[in-house]
Amino acid sequence: MSQWIDTPDALRARLAAPPASIGLDTEFIRERTYWPQLALVQIALGDGGDVLLVDPLVPGMAEALVPLLVDPGVLKLMHSPSEDLVAFQHTCGVLPAPLFDTQAAAALCGIGGGMSYQKLVLAVTGVALEKGETRSDWLRRPLSASQLEYAADDVRHLHAMHASLQQQLNTLGRSSWLAEDSARQLANAANEEGDRWPHLVMRSAQFLDAPAQRRLLRLLRWREAHARRSDRPRSWILDNELAVTLARANPADPAALQAQLDATPKAPKSLRDPIWQALTTPLADEDEAPLARGEDRDKKQLRAMQDAVLAVAGELGVPEGVLASRKLLEALQDGGGWSGPLAGWRRGVLEARLQPLLAGTTTA
Which of 30, 169, 221, 257 could form a disulfide with 251 if both were Cys (CB 3.0 to 4.6 A apart)? Predict the structure, then answer.
């Protein structure tokens, strides 16, 4: 049974004695803003129990959610919650913890990597869910009956999945792996600074020389800060293609920059001055920035590393991507060390296979 909650007092009353675990999900809109606009919060109070459909648009509701979200005695069961975490952090100022991510748990159990909620529910419980409201307008009021039912379904099966997945994790001895990944996921969501080296995720950056890559880094850092302040999508501020073009061209003066903007459809012409300032102002740490690499990378070594990861994944019965993505292997190849996602349990299962390849003492 689901219940619409549209007053903070009603929410506090229902959560006066919270259960040991809750299923938790959100619906949000992020088409025209940088920050997710939290439109609905779904809370499952137990396996087969009530589902609370909480209206966060009501004044005071975000504050009423905080005690539950930060209660260390209530485990939050969520599925692929990265975007939901950002929505909670921005709207409520806190993150839901402790956390159990059913998508990550399914990958560690060897069920599948990156599985959708619907597919995982079917695999674990045998229940087939409808997908009809995935692109719905969740900010409208009142919500339709089909919207409310879809939203309730998004948390209704989390307890059953948690019970099954937790048992499998315990059997495999991987509960600590999930706990480690969950803690990192929460830490990443709490990080207000964003990616320190955003140019590295852009493949086109590898075709720029070192000075141009530093200019690109300046533009991307500025864009991130401007998008957050103005609450607009990054691409509305400065799209990737234009950022790379400006970094490569290195306009000689504001007039040359203006000419470049005038020649580009949908370019942010009103932002010429801040773009010029960003483009020409060195960053305090830009000399530390690693360079995006392409043709100069040792592809044979990288391929050997990928093959080693694939072999370990096969032995563990988990998807290859759970262990290390190409991006993480490239960072390791570039001397980034066993940090971030590659620290902890991943280092424990991969280092013996990858370190000889990094040292060049073996071939594959």
Answer: 257
**Sites in the chain below the pLDDT cut of 70:** 132-134, 295, 361-364
- CB contact at 8 A, 262 and 269: yes
Side chain identity at residue 186, one-letter code:
L
Task: Give the pair of three-digit tokens for residue 328.
Answer: 């993480």
- Asked if 91 contacts 38 with a C-beta cutoff of 8 angstroms, the reply is yes
160, with CB counted inside 10 A (0-12, 13-18, 19+), is: middle
pLDDT of residue 363: 42
Crossing angle (nearest 10°) for helices 272-280 and 210-230: 140
pLDDT at 194: 81
Residue 2's pLDDT is what? 94
Residue 74, both tokens = 């209530």
* E strands in 95-144: 99-101
Taking the C-alpha atoms of residue 117 and residue 322, their distance in angstroms, rounded to an integer, is 17
> What pLDDT was estimated at residue 134?
64
pLDDT value for 362: 45
- So what's the pLDDT on residue 133? 64
Rounded to a whole number of angstroms, the distance between the first and last alpha carbons of the chain is 57
Token pair of 244, please?
Answer: 């790379």
Class of domain 2-190: alpha beta
Q: What is the dihedral of CA 322, 166, 150, 98, to 10 degrees?
A: -80
Q: What is the pLDDT of residue 205?
A: 95
Nearest to 96 by CA among 78, 109, 122: 78
Supply the pLDDT for residue 47: 79
CA proximity to 161, closest of 201, 208, 112: 112
**In DSSP terms, which residues pair with 27 in a beta bridge?**
40
Sign for the CA dihedral angle at 319, 322, 325, 328 comes to: negative
Dist. CA 305–CA 92, nearest whole Å: 42
Q: Which CATH class is domain 198-288?
A: mainly alpha
What is the per-residue pLDDT for 34?
A: 96
d(CA 179, CA 182): 5
pTM over 0.85: yes
d(CA 146, CA 315) in angstroms, rounded, equals: 44
Structure token digits, residue 262: 């005038």
